[in-house]
Amino acid sequence: MSSMDIVDYQIFGADSQYVEIELDPGEAAVGEAGAMLYMEQDIVMETIFGDGSASTQAQGFFGKLMKAGGRLVTGESLFTTVYMHQGKMWKRKVAFAAPYQGQIVPMPLNQLGGELICQRDSFLCAAKGVSLSIAFQKKIGTGLFGGEGFIMQRLQGDGLAFIHAGGSLIERTLRPGEKLRVDTGCLAALMPSVDYDIEYVGGLKTAFFGGEGLFFASLTGPGKVWLQSLPLSRLANRIVRAAPGGTGETSVLGGLGSFFGDN
Amino acid sequence: MSTNQVVVRGRFYSPANPAQGEAITAYSEASDLVIAALQNNGADLRLPLVALKPRYGGFNREQVYFDWKSAQGEACSVCFSAKDAELLMAQAQATATQPYQQVRREQTKRKRRSTIGLGLLALYLILPFLLLLILLWKSHQIAAWVAGYVSIEQEQALGEMVFANATDGMKLRQTGYDYEVLKSIGERLTQGSVYDYHWYLADTEEINAFAVPGGYVVANTGLLKAADSAEEVAGVLAHEVQHVEQRHTLEDIIYSLGWQASIALIAGDVSSLWITQAATQLTSLKFSRELETEADIKGLEALHKANIAPQGLVTFFEKLAESEEGLDSLTFLSTHPASDQRSANLKKAIQQQTNWTTLALPYDWPKVKAAVEQNKHTIK
Asked: What was the pLDDT predicted at A2?
C-alpha cells in the first residue's frame, strides 16, 4: 500500500554527524544536493528535477516547476539526487553528512502524523517518496521576528526523513494548550498542530538589556517541537565578531533579511 | 444521533495519546460535542460546548481547537479544520456556540489585518521593480514631461557644459568664408528662434553635423566637402537644428540621466558622475526613429519658411546612401537609419507642400569648397 521505501539507517559521530542509510535492491533515497558522503557499489545516482515524490511525478511539467521553485525559495537546490540500489542482491549503503556541527534527527513521518514543518535548509535526506514543499508563515510578526523568516519547509509523506540542525537537538512534547517560550532562531522543527507565534519579552529593561532581543518565539501545544541549541546564524555571528575587524550582531530586522535566505 | 447529522474528521489530543494525536470523527448534537468511539476506552465522549474553550491554533492558526480539562485534570483538546468547525457549530444550539462565534470574529479580523500587512510587505519588496517597470513603459513620456520644466536659460547652461564636453579635442573654428556661409545658412533657418545659436566648423573628414541643447551646432568640414550645393548643407542643418528646437537632445539627456538615476536608486550605486558620462555619450547620440522623422518633417517646414529648396536634403541622403564603400566615415548616415525609407517619406512630404517659393542661396559654392581646403591648415 505504502509508496514509501522503508530504510534502515545508522547515525555516526557526535558533533559532526553523518547518517548511513541501508538500501535493499530497488530501494532509493533522496538527498539534498551536495550532502552525499559516500556510496557503495550498485548504487546509482540520478539527479532529478523536484523531489521525486509521487505527487510531483503526477503533476506534469508545470507542477514540477512550481515545486522545484518552492525548493529554491526554501534555500534548497532545484534538483534533488536520487540514490537507487540497482543491484540484484545484497544490501548497499549510502551516507549523507551534516553540513555543519550539529545533530541529525530521524523523523519517521508516519509516526508524526504524516507532516512536519522544519527550518528552511534543514532537510538532509529521506526515503524516496517524501515530499518537500514550502510552509509559508502567514503571521507577519512571526515571520519578521520569529527567527525563522517567512519561509519554512514542509515535509510530507509516511517515510523516514532526516533533518539537521545546529548544536544539540531537543525534542519536547507539548500538551494541549501548553506553552513553551523559545529564543528566536532556535526552533528547528514542529508539528503542524503547534501554534507558532511571537511574544514580547516584557519590560523595557528586559527588552533592551536582557540580551534575548524583543521577542520570544512562543509555541503552544498540542504537538512535538524540536529545538536547536546553537543555530548556525548565531555561531556565524560569533565567528564574525571574533574575527579580526569583525562587527557586531545583525539588526532587529534580521528576519527580513533572512527572507531571501543568505545562510 | 439523527440521520441528517454532519460528521467531520478531527484529531483528539490528550496526555494518554501520542503527540500527533488520534484521528477521530465528531458531530454536534444540541449543546454537546460528541467525539465518536475513542481508541483507549471505546466509548463516545460527550462534551458540553460551554465547557470547551475554542481557539485558533496550529502552524498558521488555520485550525480550530477546543480545549478542556478532563475529569482527572488533564489538558485535552480536539482539533478541526476551520471549515469543519463551522459545520459543527452550525449544527449546534446557537447559544452554546457563543464563545466560538467570538473567536471566529477575532480570527476574521486578524486575518484581514494579516492580509493587509502581507500585501504591504510584498508591495514594499516589489516596489523598486514596479517603479522600474513604469519607468520602462513611460520613459519617453516622463523625459518629455521633465523637459517641459527646464527653462531656456537652464537648457543653454546645460548645452554649454555638454558642448564643452562633446567637443573636447575637436578643432573648432569660427573664421573663414566657409564658416561665414555656414553661419549665414544656419541663421536663415533659425530666424525667430528662442535659442541663441552658435555655429562651429570642425576640421574633420567625417561627414557629420550635430547640435547640442541651447543652440550649439557643429558641422564638420567633411560635410561641406561632400555637399555639392549650399541647399544640401541647408537641408542637413535644418534637420539638426530641429533636434534643438524640438528639444530632442535635452529629452535624450534627461532620459539617460533618469535611467542612470533610477538604476542607481535601485542598485544603490551612486558613485558614477552622470553628467559627464551622459555628455561624452552625446557625440554618438542615437535618437529614436520617431524623433528623426519629426526632425525631418520640421526641418522641411523650416526650409519652407526660409524659402530654401528642399531637394538638397533628399539628394544629400541619396548621395550618402549610394557611396556604400565609405560607410565608416558616414556617421551622419549610420546614426540616421533606414535612409531609403526616409528619403521616400521626404519626397512625399515635399510633394504635399504646394506653393513652395524658393530663392537660390546666394553663395559661391566652389569658393566655399576652396575655403575648406585653404583653411584646413590655419587651425591649430
From this structure: 44
β-strands B198-202, B172-173 pairing: antiparallel
- The shares of helix, strand and coil residues in chain B, as percent rounded to the nearest 5, are 55, 15, 30
CB-based contact A176 B76, cutoff 8 Å: yes
Q: How confident is the model at residue B205 (pLDDT cuts 50, 70, 90)?
A: confident
Q: Do A196 and A146 form a contact (C-beta atoms < 8 A)?
A: yes
Do residues B203 and B260 both lie within one domain? yes
Domain A8-241 in this protein, CATH class: alpha beta
Residue at which a domain ends, from B68, B84, B103? B103
Closest CA relative to residue A54, chosen from A134, A128, A116, A139: A128
Q: What's the distance, CA A186 to chain centroid?
A: 12
User: A176 vs B117: CB contact, 8 Å cut-off?
Assistant: no
- Whether B95 and B217 map to the same domain: the answer is no
Grid coordinates belonging to B369 = 569648397
**Chain B interface, mutation test: which of A154, A171, A175, A196, most B Cβ atoms within 10 Å?**
A175
The three-class DSSP label of residue B288 is: coil
DSSP tag of A70: H
Domain count, chain B: 2
Mean local confidence (pLDDT), B305-312: 84
Q: What percent of chain B has pLDDT over 90?
A: 11
Interface predicted TM-score of the whole assembly (ipTM), two decimals: 0.73
pLDDT at B221: 86
* Phi, psi (deg, nearest 5) at residue A262: -125, 15
Cβ(A176)–Cβ(A183) below 8 Å: no
Q: Tell which residue, A143, A167, A120, has the closest CA to residue A217.
A: A143
Q: In the structure grid, which three cell numbers stand for residue A185, read together? A: 532562531
Strand partners, B118: none
Sign of CA dihedral B362, B367, B368, B369: positive
B17 DSSP assignment: S
Among candidate residues A195, A186, A122, the one with its CA nearest the CA of residue A154:
A122
CA A250 to chain centre: 23
Bond before A222 cis per omega within 30 degrees: yes
B114 and A138: CB-CB below 8 Å?
Answer: yes
- Where does chain A show beta strands of DSSP type E? 8-12, 18-23, 28-32, 36-39, 43-49, 79-85, 92-97, 102-108, 115-118, 123-127, 131-136, 151-156, 160-166, 169-174, 179-183, 187-190, 195-200, 215-220, 223-228
Distances (CA, A) of B364 to A257, B111, B257, B330, B371: 74, 85, 44, 25, 11
Indicate the burial class of A14 (C-beta count within 10 angstroms; 0-12, 13-18, 19 or more).
exposed
Give the range of the structural domain holding residue B257, as residue numbers without chain letter. 152-378
* Domain ranges across chain A: 8-241
Q: Is the pLDDT of residue B325 over 60?
A: no
Q: What is the pLDDT of residue A256?
A: 47
Residue from A224, A160, A150, A161 nearest A193 by CA: A224
Do B87 and B168 fall into the same domain?
no
Burial of B29 (0-12, 13-18, 19+ CB in 10 A): middle
For residue A44, what pLDDT is reported? Answer: 92
Residue of B nearest to A109 (CA): B20
Chain B residues close to A111, C-beta within 8 Å: 18, 20
Q: Please check whether residues B286 and B351 belong to one and the same domain.
A: yes
Q: Contact, A147 vs A176, CB < 8 A?
A: no
Q: Is residue B65 a part of any domain in this protein?
A: yes
Q: Do B249 and B327 lie in a common domain?
A: yes
Q: How far off is chain B from A185, nearest CA to CA, in Å?
A: 16
